[in-house]
Recover the amino acids of this structure.
């Protein structure tokens, strides 16, 4: 069944040739199909969880509205409407968790590009060329803000203003001492 469908899609793709409008239509319908499939499977997962917990708890758990979640895939960003559960904080979707892990890896890639002092526009272009996903400045700004907070908590707490000397290969270097309160880490830094 899958082989026949893939063969039909391949034939349609070659029939269209270089017409990009038709190709973009195919990609968009593919994204919609993936989105619908994921949304239905998440709803089924939540329904199964509710049925399972009815047997073991006296407090009823039921759906209460929807929450939108955005996940990034190679086909682009997909926005899903996930049902909210009332009276339960323990439920964690196994379907969304692997995509959220992918999202963390995606944020790590942006953090690495930021650490090399690249501009926001350069990072947006690199991400677009690698994955085909268009991201906004707000995502990069949020990650940049978190990186700055980590940097400040680690490196900007100075014990004293005294400068000590460190002799390396009979040469004189000025050294500053740094201490991180949270981790208890002690560092020496060359001036």
């Amino acid at each position: 069944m899958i082989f026949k469908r893939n063969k039909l899609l391949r034939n349609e793709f070659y029939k269209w040739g270089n017409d990009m409008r038709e190709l973009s239509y195919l990609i968009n319908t593919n994204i919609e199909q993936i989105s619908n499939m994921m949304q239905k499977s998440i709803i089924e997962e939540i329904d199964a969880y509710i049925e399972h917990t009815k047997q073991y708890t006296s407090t009823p758990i039921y759906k209460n509205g929807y929450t939108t979640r955005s996940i990034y895939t190679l086909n682009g960003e997909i926005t899903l409407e996930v049902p909210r559960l009332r009276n339960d904080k323990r439920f964690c979707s196994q379907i969304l968790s692997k995509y959220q892990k992918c999202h963390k890896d995606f944020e790590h890639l942006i953090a690495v590009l930021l650490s090399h002092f690249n501009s926001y526009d350069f990072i947006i272009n690199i991400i677009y060329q690698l994955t085909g996903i268009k991201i906004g400045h707000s995502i990069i700004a949020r990650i940049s803000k978190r990186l700055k907070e980590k940097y400040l908590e680690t490196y900007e707490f100075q014990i004293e203003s005294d400068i000590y000397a460190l002799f390396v290969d009979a040469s004189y270097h000025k050294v500053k001492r740094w201490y991180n309160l949270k981790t208890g880490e002690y560092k020496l830094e060359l001036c």
